[in-house]
Specification:
Elements lengths: L8 H14 L3 E4 L4 H13 L3 E3 L9 E3 L13 E3 L4 H4 L4 E2 L2 H12 L7 E9 L8 E7 L2 H10 L1 E2 L1 H7 L6 E6 L24 E5 L4 E5 L4 H4 L2 H17 L2 E3 L2 E6 L5 E7 L6 H5 L9 E6 L3 E5 L5 E4 L4 E5 L5 H10 L5 E3 L2 E3 L4 E2 L11 E3 L5 E3 L18 E5 L16 E9 L9 E3 L3 H9 L2 E4 L1 H4 L5 E4 L12 H17 L8 E5 L19 H11 L5 E3 L4 E3 L12 H7 L4 H15 L9 H15 L1
Parallel strand pairs: 1-6, 3-19, 4-5, 4-10, 7-9, 9-11, 14-25, 25-29
Antiparallel strand pairs: 2-3, 6-7, 6-8, 10-11, 12-16, 13-14, 13-15, 16-17, 17-25, 18-24, 19-24, 20-21, 20-22, 22-23, 26-29, 27-28, 30-31
The protein binds oxalic acid (OXD) and manganese (II) ion (MN).
Length: 614
């Protein structure tokens, strides 16, 4: 499609203005068709950026290798440019929006010379759903176009819903690598290699996104973290709904009763695995609605309804195996884009902990170097073969356990929220909040322990990642807590409090004195989900404690290899540990939010402390 076919005057003017600034050779409006996808892939393969994989093993799949400067979300270069600094809060990098726009406008001038400017009309959520939003991404990267085809709904249907004057979130993206006459990418991933010159900017007051210099993942596929979390969290605050970093799963009990549960876990805590879990508990079934993001609005019945705004999975490859996530492995067998994985001699992908050694004698690592093929799936002694943040982009419909209603425009009614992190001590296996505000308190103190090796912090240090939204909340986190509290209070004031999802805190990662995991995790987590399911039905399966409602002894049958004693420890209150936790929150965590922290959260802190001392 070309610009003149656009019916939305504002969109047409916006496109023309950006094209005038960026000076591409041509402008193309994306139509979302298979023909367009194939044409973009051909450009990428011809340019030496994409490698077609073995059609017998991975039909319709391609491997890409990015620049070593461009392998993950650039958090230090991610900005929330609200008018006032306080509106961005201590959780964000703030910069003045006027200055930032001035700087970036100059960077954008002529940045698309020698390239095509693509305009991608996309819907986050089923096209036309009341919960969905439309975005428009301008980009000069065909890699972004094909990834957006998988991760969102792209094309003419979206323009139809947008109509002549509908609202869209404007998303500007450039890889910052204009081409001189006769120049081509020639196998080199185009981007701005100096990290300090990359920008992932958000303007919450005007709901705009401007990204420059990176072609990778969340920096470049602007529908995902930028729109569906950072800008959507602001829209949700302004419009009275929730945009969350949450998986959505459907669980069916042996009697055929269904519930929907969402879960917020920080990165690297197994959200995708939980969303696609294969239960060990006989008769129980888990199906997937989404693995990363949930948008939720209240229905007329007072219940919260969730949609998955995405259409694909952008999953971390290393560590994914048939053992850790059978359904993810099934989902990526065809029509999948792999980035920064190893390439085997038989033109298949490979990564650390894929479950098997690499075939043949040699393998090409993510940097393009030929190396000896690892005989096991463990990381070689020197450098990893796949980058630790290597990814697969796969259509969600290819997941064998995708729930049939995953694209229902009404969304699915949520019964429970899970919060959790990676905590070696103190935090029990599962704990139900005593009230909505207590649940918000739990979400606010969510944290994950990090090893010294990983982040240069003392081992055992807890990095608080409230609601798993630390890198993704587009405004002051104190106000975000308040938004959650207000939604609960409104629902209670309307007599609908009983319809609110119940809130649970989970922790699969407790370790014993020998540093061994006490809980096997993965499929055995179905036992915890079953307990939660029954709690939502009001089953008498808990004991009330100082920190919340814990499973009654025997309410969760221990899996093989877990003794009754261990189970007891996993489900009891570690009084001393909790006193330390509370002291840490009071002294080192909550004060950063100043007077933006809702007072009721301090009241919760006082109440728990009193109960622990009582
Ligand atoms: C992701 C993340 O990529 O949370 O989903 O980092
Ligand atoms: Mn995520």
């Amino acid at each position: 499609m070309n610009i003149n076919e656009l019916k939305h005057a504002g969109l047409k003017k916006w496109t023309e203005e950006w094209a005038a600034l960026m000076q591409p050779d041509s402008v193309e409006i994306c139509d979302g068709t298979r023909e367009e996808y194939d044409r973009m892939i051909k450009i990428l393969v011809d340019g030496g950026l994409g490698t077609p994989l073995n059609p017998e093993k991975k039909p319709g799949c391609y491997l890409f290798r990015s620049d070593p400067s461009d392998v993950a979300r650039a958090e230090s270069r991610t900005f929330i440019a609200s008018k006032e600094k306080i509106e961005a809060g201590p959780n964000n990098n703030w910069t003045d929006p006027v200055e930032l726009k001035k700087t970036m406008t100059e960077l954008y001038r002529g940045c698309m010379k020698g390239r095509t400017m693509y305009v991608i009309p996309f819907s986050m959520g089923p096209v036309g759903s009341d919960i969905a939003k439309i975005g428009m991404e301008i980009t000069d990267s065909p890699y972004v176009v094909v990834n957006m085809h998988i991760m969102t709904r792209v094309g003419k249907e979206v323009l139809k819903v947008l109509g002549a004057d509908g609202f869209f979130v404007p998303c500007i993206h450039s890889i910052a690598k204009p081409l001189a006459k006769g120049e081509s990418d020639n196998g080199k991933w185009p981007c701005e290699p100096d990290v300090q010159k990359k920008y992932i900017s958000h303007f919450p007051d005007t709901y705009e996104i401007w990204s420059y210099g990176s072609g990778y993942g969340g920096n470049a596929l602007l529908g995902k973290k930028c729109l569906a979390l950072r800008i959507a969290s602001v829209l949700a605050r302004d419009e009275g709904w929730l945009a969350e970093h949450m998986l959505i799963l459907k669980i069916t009990n042996p009697e055929g009763k269904v519930k929907y549960i969402t879960g917020a876990l920080p990165s690297a805590c197994g959200k995708t695995n939980l969303a696609m879990l294969v239960p060990t508990l006989p008769g129980w079934k888990v199906e997937t609605i989404g693995d990363d993001i949930a948008w939720m609005k209240f229905g007329k019945d007072g219940r919260l309804y969730a949609i998955n705004p995405e259409a694909g999975f952008f999953g971390v490859a290393p560590g994914t195996s048939t053992q850790s996530n059978f359904n993810a492995m099934e989902s990526i067998k065809k029509n999948t884009i792999f980035t920064n994985c190893g390439l085997t001699e038989d033109n298949d992908i490979w990564w650390e902990e894929i479950g098997y050694g690499a075939p043949g004698e040699t393998i090409i690592d993510w940097k393009g170097n030929k190396r000896p093929a690892p005989k096991t799936d463990k990381k070689p002694a020197d450098e990893p073969i796949a980058h630790a943040n290597a990814r697969f982009t796969a259509p969600a419909r290819q997941c064998p356990v995708i729930a049939p209603e995953w694209e229902d425009p009404k969304g699915v009614p949520i019964s429970a929220f899970l919060f959790g992190g990676r905590r070696a001590a103190t935090i029990p296996l599962v704990n139900q909040s005593k009230s909505w505000v207590h649940g918000v308190f739990m979400g606010s103190i969510t944290g994950s322990e990090i090893t010294a090796a990983a982040l240069d912090l003392a081992a055992g240090t807890v990095r608080r990642d409230p609601f798993a939204m630390l890198p993704f909340c587009g405004y002051n986190m104190g106000d975000y807590f308040n938004h959650w509290i207000k939604l609960g209070q409104k629902s209670e004031a309307e007599g609908r409090g009983g319809e609110l999802p119940k809130i649970f805190f989970i922790n699969w990662f407790r370790k014993n004195k020998d540093g061994k995991f006490m809980w096997p995790g993965y499929s055995e987590n179905s036992r915890v989900l079953a307990w939660i399911f029954d709690r939502c039905d009001g089953k008498d399966n808990c004991v009330q404690t100082a920190i919340g409602n814990l499973p009654k002894p025997g309410a969760i049958e221990p899996p093989q290899g877990v003794s009754a004693e261990t189970m007891n420890e996993l489900c009891s209150v570690d009084i001393d540990g909790w006193k330390k936790e509370i002291a840490d929150v009071r002294k080192d965590y909550y004060p950063q939010y100043g007077d933006r922290l809702p007072k009721v959260l301090y009241d919760e802190l006082d109440a728990i402390e009193k109960r622990l001392n009582g």
